[in-house]
Amino acid sequence: MAPPDPKQKQSLQKDKIRILLLEGVHQTAVDLLASRGYTNVEHLKTSLPEEELIEKISRAHFVGIRSRTQLTRKVLENAPKLIAIGCFCIGTNQVDLKAATELGIAVFNAPYSNTRSVAELIIAETIFALRGIPEKNTVCHRGGWQKTAKGSYEARGKTLGIVGYGAIGSQVSVLAESLGMRVIFFDVITKLPLGNASQVGSLDELLEQADVVSLHVPETPSTRMMMGPDQIARMKPGAILLNASRGTVVDIEALAEALKNGNLAGTAIDVFPVEPRGNEDEFVSPLRGLDNALLTPHIGGSTVEAQENIGVEVSDKLALYSDNGTTTSSVNFPEVALPGHAGAHRLLHIHQNIPGVLSAINQVFSENGINISAQFLQTNELVGYVVIDVDAEYSDLALEKLKNVPGTLRCRVLF
Ligand SMILES: NC(=O)C1=CN([C@@H]2O[C@H](COP(=O)(O)OP(=O)(O)OC[C@H]3O[C@@H](n4cnc5c(N)ncnc54)[C@H](O)[C@@H]3O)[C@@H](O)[C@H]2O)C=CC1
Ligand SMILES: O=C(O)CCC(=O)C(=O)O
């Protein structure tokens, strides 16, 4: 891959910095950006088809998305000005993180702001599914009356199997125990169980014991289709499957089959292999029309509280990175928490993490007699991030020279 031409990057006044926000990112994001002087914001309600996305992102310095927008390598390679991506959500699987890193584009997200919202939805769905509410509700809407205790159970005493005991899984665990459920979990990492929960050694072990299985893993190669026909068949007869993680984690056709033939009693699904781009588009799924399937339009994290908080959290990270170069909690960049740089100009240099770049950078300063007032360096496997504060009079010269250092990905100056 050819690195972007660093000579094209220019430092800009705030009102010239173009920010593209997609998928109805909350207004708090726009407000926070405005309060920091970033007013050049395009705020759209939906994601965009690839061609339109490329056209808009080619001019953007920052882009904000949720889970729907696919920022592929192709899209990112067409974003020569892009400084950072804000994922206004937890998941970052929709971004090609390797491509973003190789192109010198920082990625931020909101790792905890909607955790509680998802956990609460899962608890509600657990109770509803155990009581057969999705089906009873549908029957009532059709004019029927299904007053029966058959197939209707309390949550108390039932076993909840949580797959992925991270922020959401462990929160679900605590809430479920407060209902009197027994909690077991499976995770690829050994985790400290909260309350009386216990970790099991394999997914199969969990599936064989759980009355309700709830998935809380990220989308990765190891979780893709982790609930296929074999795993679904391994669940207890009459068990319930909940998925509010990612649509690719469950074989949706196999799930539809298990619901139709009665092997599973019910399901609640919030995420789908293919989701509509916006509220105007049709939702297509093999689960449509199945009364024992509670379907929600990827709203696990869609509460007012979560969206307000996410809007502030992610836009704050973007503004801080733009203002002073801080990368704290970036998902793909070396993390640097930077002090202010009053009185100095700050150069931000992102480069491929290959031998020789650092000495070439230092040479720029020694050869040109430029005094460094502060310097910060952090690297990860793919990129190095050097921040250098210099006297204002030298920043133009230093920027010009730094752009020519071999291995440079992005270089900008902050006044
Ligand atoms: N429906 C919605 O609106 C929302 C969905 N999500 C989804 O939920 C996912 C989980 O979120 P968090 O709990 O915050 O993430 P997290 O990173 O805190 O936890 C994920 C857990 O899954 C485990 N894990 C990873 N691969 C695994 C595997 N193959 N088998 C078993 N465990 C595995 C990890 O070790 C970790 O403990 C997110 O990645 C996102 O895709 C998140 C928020 C809202
Ligand atoms: O609210 C959204 O758009 C996405 C929520 C989600 O799936 C996440 O936070 O990972």
Automatic annotation (TrEMBL):
Residues 346-415 form the ACT domain. Pathway: Amino-acid biosynthesis; L-serine biosynthesis; L-serine from 3-phospho-D-glycerate: step 1/3. Gene3D superfamilies: 3.30.70.260, NAD(P)-binding Rossmann-like Domain (3.40.50.720). InterPro entries: ACT-like_dom_sf, ACT_dom, AHAS_small-like_ACT, D-iso_2-hydroxyacid_DH_PdxB, D-isomer_2_OHA_DH_cat_dom, D-isomer_DH_CS, D-isomer_DH_CS1, D-isomer_DH_NAD-bd. Its EC number is 1.1.1.399, 1.1.1.95. GO terms for molecular function: phosphoglycerate dehydrogenase activity. It catalyses: (2R)-3-phosphoglycerate + NAD(+) = 3-phosphooxypyruvate + NADH + H(+); (R)-2-hydroxyglutarate + NAD(+) = 2-oxoglutarate + NADH + H(+). Keywords: NAD, Oxidoreductase. It holds the Pfam family 2-Hacid_dh. Belongs to the D-isomer specific 2-hydroxyacid dehydrogenase family. Catalyzes the reversible oxidation of 3-phospho-D-glycerate to 3-phosphonooxypyruvate, the first step of the phosphorylated L-serine biosynthesis pathway. Also catalyzes the reversible oxidation of 2-hydroxyglutarate to 2-oxoglutarate. This is D-3-phosphoglycerate dehydrogenase. It comes from Microbulbifer halophilus. The gene is serA.
